[in-house]
Amino acid sequence: MRGDRNPCRPPHRERPSVPRYDQVDPRPSVDIRKDYPVVSADLKSADVAIVGGGIVGCATALAARRHGLSVALLERGRICGEASSAAGGLICAQYDADHDAPLFRLRVDGRDAFPEFAQLLEELSGQSIGFSSGPTIGLARTHQQRQQLLARVTWQRQAGLDAQFLEPEEARRREPLLPPDLTGAAVYPDGQVDTQRWPPIVHRALLAAGVRVHQGTDVTAVAAGPNPTVQTVRGALHADRIVLATGAWLPHLRPGVPIVPSRGHMLAFDAPHLKLGHILHLPGGSLAQRSHGRIVFGATKERVGFDRRLRAGAVREMLNRALATLPALADCPLASIWTGFRPEPTDGLPLIGRDPRSGCYLATGHHTHGITMSWHTGQLIARLLTNHPPAYPLHPFTPTRLTT
Ligand SMILES: Cc1cc2nc3c(=O)[nH]c(=O)nc-3n(C[C@H](O)[C@H](O)[C@H](O)COP(=O)(O)OP(=O)(O)OC[C@H]3O[C@@H](n4cnc5c(N)ncnc54)[C@H](O)[C@@H]3O)c2cc1C
After folding, report:
1. Which pairing describes strands 212-214 and 71-74: parallel, antiparallel, or unpaired?
2. What is the Å distance from ligand 1's center to 396 Cα?
3. 287 plus 332 within the same structural domain
């Protein structure tokens, strides 16, 4: 291993206390443009080069540092500047799962691993990432949806998971803002993180862990084999192993992978006077309130390539859905609308593991749950990079499926 200082835990810092809704400035607490240069130090060789500074690449970088590897992270824009800050930030696994499957288990384990990641990011950065864990509520508004929720809760309980069905009165008692026409609800143990404010915090955590972060560094080509090299617009970098974590853009560096961009629209309302105690999952979207009172709602799923523009019809549909669930939102300022691109695998499964064709490790394709599965994925890849057997049955997700 090349001799970087070991990332073993930095000195413990007190966790910032959780602020009250009305005490927080909604703007991010660090301004990335002021605090960090876009381009960092010269490119130097490393044990591992990670291409893509979304949350999956960042989690992989931190996990690899924990294993004592030197890491260079190459991001063409800014850390977590794409899907990873466009996301709703729900750390959720169970609300839409109708049967057991490897991907469902990866999500559940990802959700359960996430609090450790949140703590690590906060300890390294000294700042809160706005993570909170707590129950979420899935809502049914028709008889058919009620039956579906009941069946979901039944199989998940039989599988040993925490899930509870609520009659409408009980659901409204727990969450008074819910509409009167509910037919049932289900409660699951989940969480959320404020992804809109975490890019500078994740960046700070990476630097504190000794990751060499190169923002503004577009990778143009990779070559694994005996002399693994990453070609960038700023020159070449040599690394023993290369990880591609470029999200929806993976096919640009590794043609032929079944990944396409899935555009999602998000809305945010300024609603500090409303008190939403749970994340709400409705058919066609989820609502969550951040600690500073803002309520976010998302998201659409559209295959339109990399078109970032807002679609009027999508915004109208989302507003209709959000206001039908929480009518009080109609009087709130609409604070912001944005889009982002999920990495959607057309065969339904993420890519986690070594790709025999390119010789690189792939870590992408987490589609709607990439925040939830980020730390778990980073840890799995770090084990592979250090020749440890995966602590998990990874075969459904391995890139070898692309060659068969
Ligand atoms: C609207 C929306 C809502 C979502 N809500 C949730 C949610 O509530 N919960 C959840 O778990 N997930 C959610 N997701 C999904 C989640 O955001 C993604 O699955 C996750 O962020 C993917 O992370 P990533 O690191 O793979 O990709 P990204 O965050 O997109 O990162 C990839 C990075 O690679 C960089 N890159 C690409 N090509 C190159 C190159 N050639 N050289 C250098 N860098 C390159 C990009 O600039 C980018 O920063 C949502 C997504 C969207 C869009």
Report:
1. parallel
2. 21
3. yes
CA distance 80 to 343: 14
DSSP-based three-state secondary structure for 172: helix
Longest dimension (CA), the chain: 65
Cα 93 to middle of ligand 1, angstroms? 18
What is the pLDDT confidence band of residue 392, given thresholds at 50, 70 and 90?
A: confident
How confident is the model over 114-164, as pLDDT tens digits?
Answer: 999 999 999 999 999 999 998 999 999 999 999 999 999 999 999 999 999
Return the closest-CA partner of residue 58 out of 271, 185, 205, 170: 205
Cα-to-centroid distance, 52 and ligand 1 (Å)? 9
CATH code, domain with 162: 3.30.9.10
Q: Which two tokens stand for residue 321?
A: 């859905």
Does the Cβ of 215 fall within 6 Å of ligand 1? no
- Whether residue 64 lies inside any domain: the answer is yes
Nearest 5°: the CA angle 206, 268, 194 is 25
pTM score above 0.85: yes
Q: Quote the CA–CA distance of 288 and 294 in Å, as a whole number.
A: 8
Per the CB < 8 A criterion, the answer to whether 175 and 169 are in contact is: no
Picking from 300, 327, 343, the residue at the C-terminal end of a domain is: 343
Six token digits for residue 27: 């703007």
Query: Which residue has better confidence, 296 or 7?
Result: 296
**Ligand 1 pocket member 57 (CB < 6 A):** yes
**Residue of 38, 60, 82, 108 to mutate, ligand 1, most atoms within 8 A of C-beta:** 82
Distance, CA 163 to ligand 1 centroid (Å)?
29
Angle subtended at Cα 270 by Cα 123 and Cα 291, rounded to the nearest 5 degrees: 25
Please give the residue range of the domain that contains residue 285: 133-190+261-343
Indicate whether residue 285 lines ligand 1 (CB < 6 A): no
Q: What amino acid is encoded at 53 in this protein? A: G
The answer to whether 195 touches 87, Cβ cutoff 8 Å, is yes
Helices (H), 5-142: 32-35, 55-66, 83-86, 102-125
Tell me, in angstroms, the distance from the centre of ligand 1 to residue 350's CA: 13
pLDDT category at 404 given cuts 50, 70, 90 is low
